[in-house]
C-alpha cells in the first residue's frame, strides 16, 4: 500500500505531505485540550497532609482528591501534578509557569497575579495543642487561659489576629520549618504548646503517636478556609467560574463527605 501511494504522489506533492506530517505528528503527542478549548492544566501542590502529599510518587490527600474530581467533572484535562516547596509553587504560579496551586489561604495581596474561586475546598480552623504533663495547662480551655508558655509556630504562616496578639506578648521559641517539627519538639518538652491547622494537627498526632502526650484546647482560635489558586497569566476567569460551580455542586452531594471521611476518619 505504501508503494502504491508513492507511485501516485509526485515528488512535489510527496514533499508537501511529509512537511505537513512533520508538523501534525508532534502536535498529536501533546496533551489534549479540554472540550471548552482550555489547555491542559499544570497542577502544583504542597506537602501538607492530609490535604496534599505524595506517597510512592502518587498525589494524595483531601484537596488533591477534590481538585482532581472537580476538574474531571468539568471535562478539564490535566497535563501534570507536581509537589513543590510552597514558596517555589507560588513563584511558578506568579510567572504563569504553573496553572493551579493548592491548598492556599486567602490573601488579598495575591489577587494581582492569582485568581481565587468563591468556594473553598475545605473549611477548617486554627487550633492549639498543649502538653498534658504540665498541671497548669490541664484545665486550659482557650488561648486566653495560657500563661507563660512557649508557643510553637511555623515560619511563613499567616496566623489569625488573636494568635498574632498572643505571640506579641508571650515568650516563644524561634519558628521552625514545618508543623511536624513542632509536634516533635512538644513531645520532647522543648515547647509547651503549638498552633496548627485542625486537620493537619490531627493527622500528625496520629502519625507520631502523641495522643497521650497532648491535649487539644476545646476552643479554636479562628476558622480557616483553603482554596486552589489559579494563575492570572495562564488561566481564564471562565475556567475558574466553571470550577467554582462544579465544586459547589460536589459539596452539595454525598461524594464530598466521602472524600473527607477517607482522610479524616478520626479528626477532632
Provide a descriptive summary of the structure in words:
There is one protein chain. 38% of the residues lie in helices and 20% in strands. It is an alpha/beta fold. The N and C termini lie far apart (69 Å). Strands 1, 4, 5, 6, 7, 8, 9, 10 and 11 form a 9-stranded mixed β-sheet that branches. The protein folds into 2 domains: 120 residues, 3-Layer(aba) Sandwich (D-Maltodextrin-Binding Protein, domain 2), CATH 3.40.190.10; 100 residues, D-Maltodextrin-Binding Protein, domain 2, CATH 3.40.190.10.
List keywords for this structure.
268 residues, alpha/beta, D-Maltodextrin-Binding Protein, domain 2, 9-stranded mixed sheet, two-stranded antiparallel sheet, 38% helix, elongated, disordered N terminus
Write down how many β-strands occur, each being a DSSP E stretch of 2 or more residues. 11
What fraction, in percent, of the residue positions are helical? 25-40%
Instruction: Specify the structural class.
Output: alpha/beta
Number of structurally distinct domains = 2
Alpha-carbon distance between the two ends: 69 Å
What is the element string, with H for helices and E for strands? HHEEEHEHEEEEHHEHEEHH
CATH fold title of the largest domain? D-Maltodextrin-Binding Protein, domain 2
Please state the overall shape, judged from the principal axes of the Cα atoms.
elongated
Name of the CATH superfamily of the largest domain: Periplasmic binding protein-like II
Tell me what the CATH architecture of the largest domain is: 3-Layer(aba) Sandwich
Any low-confidence stretches, pLDDT <50, length ≥5?
A: 1-12, 16-35
Please tell me how large the radius of gyration is: 25 Å
- Text of the CATH class of the largest domain: Alpha Beta
The helix count comes to 9
Largest sheet, if any?
9 strands, mixed
Average pLDDT across residues? 87
Strand content: 15-25%
Amino acid at each position: 500500500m505504501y508503494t502504491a501511494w508513492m507511485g501516485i504522489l509526485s515528488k512535489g506533492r510527496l514533499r508537501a505531505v511529509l512537511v505537513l506530517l512533520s508538523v501534525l505528528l508532534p502536535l498529536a503527542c501533546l496533551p489534549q485540550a479540554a472540550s471548552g478549548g482550555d489547555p491542559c492544566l499544570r497542577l502544583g501542590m504542597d506537602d501538607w497532609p492530609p490535604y496534599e502529599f505524595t506517597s510512592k510518587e502518587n498525589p494524595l490527600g483531601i484537596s488533591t482528591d477534590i481538585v482532581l474530581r472537580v476538574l474531571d467533572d468539568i471535562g478539564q484535562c490535566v497535563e501534570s501534578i507536581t509537589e513543590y516547596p510552597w514558596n517555589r509553587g507560588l513563584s511558578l504560579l506568579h510567572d504563569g509557569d504553573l496553572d493551579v496551586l493548592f491548598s492556599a489561604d486567602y490573601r488579598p495581596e495575591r489577587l494581582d497575579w492569582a485568581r481565587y474561586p468563591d468556594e473553598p475546598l475545605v473549611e477548617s480552623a486554627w487550633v492549639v495543642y498543649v502538653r498534658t504533663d504540665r498541671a497548669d495547662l490541664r484545665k486550659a480551655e482557650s488561648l486566653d487561659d495560657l500563661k507563660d508558655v512557649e508557643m510553637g509556630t511555623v515560619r511563613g504562616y499567616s496566623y489569625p489576629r488573636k494568635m498574632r496578639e498572643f505571640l506579641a506578648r508571650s515568650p516563644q521559641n524561634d519558628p521552625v520549618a514545618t508543623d511536624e517539627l513542632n509536634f516533635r519538639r512538644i513531645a520532647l518538652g522543648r515547647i509547651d504548646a503549638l498552633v496548627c491547622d485542625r486537620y493537619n494537627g490531627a493527622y500528625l498526632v496520629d502519625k507520631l503517636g502523641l495522643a497521650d502526650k497532648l491535649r487539644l484546647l476545646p476552643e479554636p482560635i479562628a476558622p480557616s478556609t483553603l482554596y486552589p489558586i489559579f494563575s492570572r497569566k495562564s488561566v481564564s476567569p471562565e475556567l475558574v467560574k466553571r470550577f467554582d460551580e462544579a465544586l459547589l455542586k460536589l459539596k452539595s452531594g454525598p461524594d464530598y463527605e466521602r472524600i473527607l471521611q477517607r482522610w479524616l476518619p478520626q479528626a477532632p
